[in-house]
Amino acid sequence: MATADKPRGGPTTFNFSDRECVWMKAKIVPVKYCDNAFDCTKCAFDKAMGKKLAKEETDEKWQSVMFRKGSHDLRCRHALTGGAPAYKKCANAYDCARCPYDQMLEDTLEADHTMFGPPQYMNAHGFRVPRDYYIHRNHGWARIEYGGRVRIGLDDFGNRLVGKADKFRLPSLGTRFTFAEESFIMSRESHEVGVKAPLTGVVTAVNQKLLDSPVTTNRDPYCSGWVMLIDPFELRSELKELTFGIESVKFIESEGERLLSLIADDPAAAAATGGEPIPDVYGSFKDLGWDNLVKGFL
Q: What is the pTM of this model?
C-alpha cells in the first residue's frame, strides 16, 4: 500500500529529532547529519568511512573502527542515543546482537515512555493510530528507531479483534522473516492466528514479558505491548508497502467499516460505531467465528 503522505527525504525515525550521524556522535567526523533513517547497513557514507579509516578494501562499521583504533570515546551505543548513562563504555566490540547489556535494556525498558516518550495518536473511528509508526495491511506495526532497528507489534485494531489473548509464541533470536511471512503467533481459547511480519529482517530481541502476561499487548499495544525487534534488510523498499500518517487513518477506518458490516445485524454492533470501539470483538461476537473475525483481518 503505497501512501501519498510518506515523509520526504526517507523513512521517519520515531521520536528522534537529533539527526547527528553516529560517526559524528563518535567524534570521528566533525559534522554529518543522517539522511538514511540511521540504517547504517545500507548507508554509502558509512561504508566509505569504514574503508577510509580502516585503509583496506573491507567494509567496516563505525563501531568496529572505534573499537579497533582504541578511540578515546568507546561509549556504548545506548549512551550515544541517551538510553544509558553517558559514561557507559562498550566492552563487547560493539557486537550489540550478542551483548548482555543490550539485551538487558530491551528487557527492562519495555520500549515504554522512559526512553522515547509517548506516541501521539490519531483517531480512526475510535481506533488509535500512532503518528510516526508504519502499519501493515494485516495490522502489524513497525517503528523505526535509532540505528535503523525496527520494533514490531500488533496494532490497536488487531488487538481488539483478538481480545484477551492467553498465549504468545515468539520467534527465537536470529530468526529471519521475509515481508508478510508469519512472524509470531497469538492464541486465545485454543484458537491461533499468525501475525505477518511487516518487514523483512532478523530478530534481535523479543518481549519476554508477553509470555507471562499476554494481555499486555491489549492494554498498551504500541509501547509495553511490543513483540519483537528486528534488523531490517530491505527497509526503504518495503516501507512503500506500508501505510503511514493519514493513509494509516484511512486504512483503519476502512477496516472498521468492514468489521461493522460483519456484525451489523447484531444488536451489540452499536457499541462499535463511533466513540470507543469495543475492546473484545471476538469475545462479543463468537457466533461469527474466529476465522471470520480474526483470521479474516490478520
A: 0.71
